[in-house]
Amino acid sequence: MRFETSQHMRLGQTMKLAPRMIQSMEILQMPLVELQERIEQELESNATLELVEADGEPTAPAPSDGSASNGELKVDESGEQDFARLDDFVSENPEITEGDEPTPGHEERGEERRDAGLEALSTMRVRGDADRDAKHEAMAAAPSRSASLGEQLMGQWGVADVEQPLRPLGELLIQSLDNDGYLRTPLETVADHAPERMKPIAVADLERALAAVQLLLEPPGVAARDARECLLLQLDALEDDDHPFRRQGDDAEHGRALRVARELVEHHLDDLMQNRLPRISERTGLTIEDIKAGLGLMRRLSLAPARRLVEEAPEPIIPDAIVEFDEDQDRYIAYLNDRTLPSLRINREYALMSKDRVVPRHDREFLKTNLSNAQFLIDAVEQRKRTLLRVIEVVVQEQRDYFDLGPQALKPLPMTAVGERLGIHVATVSRAVAEKFLETPRGIVPLRRFFTGGTQNEAGEDVSWDAIKAALRECIDAEDPAAPLSDDALVEELKKRGLEIARRTVAKYRGQLGIAPARLRKKF
């Protein structure tokens, strides 16, 4: 084997994206909230970029003394106000006049000024409380970070009345819980991975600590090892008359429903999950009504009760555009929701400094670089607005039936067709609709929802896949609960509506809609 080097020529074509082109595509793909954050970051890092107020003037900081920058200068010829301000300044800064001999009556005048100053200060404080800055109020009203599941459980365990040897073991078990509150790690593994200072740990001691954790921590069901144990722990809490988890009601009916629910969970949970109620009735001797009563009580239970402690606030959706109906013109009009988007401009002074030969060269180069970045950001934001609005206008024109009739009238709209109509690449259309939302008369809808494939019905009309899903849901909502439609029956129902699709397609769409099969939808 021999290694050698050689040189040769090869002709080829490659496409490279410039950094600014990549940045332009990123800005086009950003939703409104991310774009606002991107502009704020650029305003902080680039001094040549500035905001423009509604009157066209750039934003300027307010004077530090609280006076108006464009107010009229008033001169008091008597000079009384000047002397009063001087006295207030001296009284507030006594260190300036240290060593000076007080003049006769100076102490009395000082006390009077001090009393007047305290009175004015109290008035200012009251007025300041009434006219607090809006930003401070928003910060004060902002919700604080909620404690995590582990922190809340640790807090409960810290005040629980347990034996001292079980306390560190309980903390170890709480640290081993999953995000939904289950203990899916075997106790043997928990003991093996415990800190060296706690070893050796007996599994029997962990069993005792686990029983204490399950009994003392809220909500009931925390630290369960499986779904059956989680439900049983909650049923145990329902048996407690003083437990807040139990509702008030008829004790006899409650007790019977509780016994039925415990029987179902302990011995027939698999049949219950498969909706095989007649088999449960045959094996237990219970009537269907008794089983339904037990199921009604079980609906108050939760398979993930620990999630009640950690509330995940949904992220707000800010639509990038708004679609409204114009009755006079009988058409839908789309416009961008860019009122919260700041208007940008180039700082004129820095632009002149970049061309001034008096300014040092390295400073001019620095200004030119920042001016170029600022101008490109402004151009990229404007290009994003134009591209997004053009795409939305095509969507509004092509999907008029959706806005009039609903999701059943949604038509297929490939991105390639929109790109060819606008004279842009399909990738540009894809980036323009990514993570964007429209506020329409039918609610807030993802923009990407309007771009979907489809098929043709028996009349030769184009029907989108989402319209077929909507028709499928209508068929299932209108079915008889005692005899739900199978997938084959759903195929026939859709065929009656002029939609001919395969059974496996019906099963796939039913799964995407989160609809159970017929045997699980049956009501006894």
Word description of this protein:
By secondary structure, this protein is of the alpha+beta class. It has helices at 19-29, 32-45, 80-92, 106-130, 134-141, 149-158, 166-175, 187-192, 203-216, 227-239, 251-267, 269-273, 277-284, 288-298, 348-353, 361-398, 400-405, 415-422, 426-433, 465-477, 487-496, 503-512, 518-521, and strands at 49-51, 321-326, 331-336, 344-346, 437-440, 443-446, 454-456, 462-464. Residues 60-79, 95-132 and 242-249 have low confidence and may be disordered. A four-stranded mixed sheet has the order 3-2-5-6. Strands 1-4 form a two-stranded antiparallel ribbon. Strands 7-8 form a two-stranded antiparallel ribbon. The longest helix is centred in the last third of the chain and has 38 residues, at 361-398. It is built from 23 helices and eight strands. Helix 1 packs across helix 16 (361-398), helix 10 (227-239) packs antiparallel against helix 11 and helix 18 (415-422) crosses helix 19 (426-433). It is extended and about 90 Å long. Among the domains are: 149-308, no CATH class; 453-524, Orthogonal Bundle (Arc Repressor Mutant, subunit A), CATH 1.10.10.
List keywords for this structure.
alpha+beta, two-stranded antiparallel sheet, 6% strand
What is the element layout, followed by pairings?
Layout: H1 19-29, H2 32-45, E1 49-51, H3 80-92, H4 106-130, H5 134-141, H6 149-158, H7 166-175, H8 187-192, H9 203-216, H10 227-239, H11 251-267, H12 269-273, H13 277-284, H14 288-298, E2 321-326, E3 331-336, E4 344-346, H15 348-353, H16 361-398, H17 400-405, H18 415-422, H19 426-433, E5 437-440, E6 443-446, E7 454-456, E8 462-464, H20 465-477, H21 487-496, H22 503-512, H23 518-521
Parallel strand pairs: 2-5
Antiparallel strand pairs: 1-4, 2-3, 5-6, 7-8
